Amino acid sequence: MKGSSMTDPSPSVPPPAKKKLGPLGWSLIGCGGLILIAGLLIAGLMAAGDFHRRLAKRWQEEQRRQQRQEQTSPQSGQPQH
After folding, report:
1. What single DSSP character describes residue 59?
2. What angle do CA 32, 51, 35 make, to 5 degrees?
3. Distance, CA of 63 to CA of 57 (rounded, Å)
4. Confidence of residue 11 (pLDDT cuts 50, 70, 90)
5. pLDDT score of 25
6. How far is CA 32 from CA 26, 27, 38, 57, in A?
7. Nearest-angstrom CA–CA distance, 75 and 72
8. What is the DSSP string of 41-55?
9. In whole angstroms, what is the distance from residue 48 CA to residue 54 CA?
10. How far is it between the farthest Cα atoms of the chain?
11. pTM of the shown model
12. How far is residue 46 CA from its own chain's centroid?
């Protein structure tokens, strides 16, 4: 018996091959990516809608406040009798 054959691994045995990702794996990754993008898009649209709703509400309040001020204060452009 030779001692060198016991300690050195056999060069004829290749290392185990890496398992490749199958078509189902790629499909799941693609669908997951699309779902993520759609979710981000929907969240962005909801945030934009909320911003515009708040902006419109603020604008309406400003218009009401101006109308009340016009009704309570005398108009300076008219001559007084």
Report:
1. H
2. 5
3. 10
4. low
5. 94
6. 10, 8, 10, 37
7. 9
8. HHHHHHHHHHHHHHH
9. 10
10. 130
11. 0.55
12. 11
Counted residue by residue, the chain has a size of 81
Distances (CA, A) of 47 to 36, 38, 57, 81: 17, 14, 15, 54
Token look-up 């008219």 returns 78
Helices (H) and strands (E) in the chain, counts: 2, 0
| pLDDT tens-digit series, residues 48-67 | 999 999 999 999 999 999 99
The reported pLDDT for the residue numbered 33 is: 97
More confident residue, 74 or 49: 49
Mean pLDDT of 10-27: 83
Place of tokens 């709703």: 53
Q: How far apart are CA 25 and CA 18, in angstroms?
A: 15
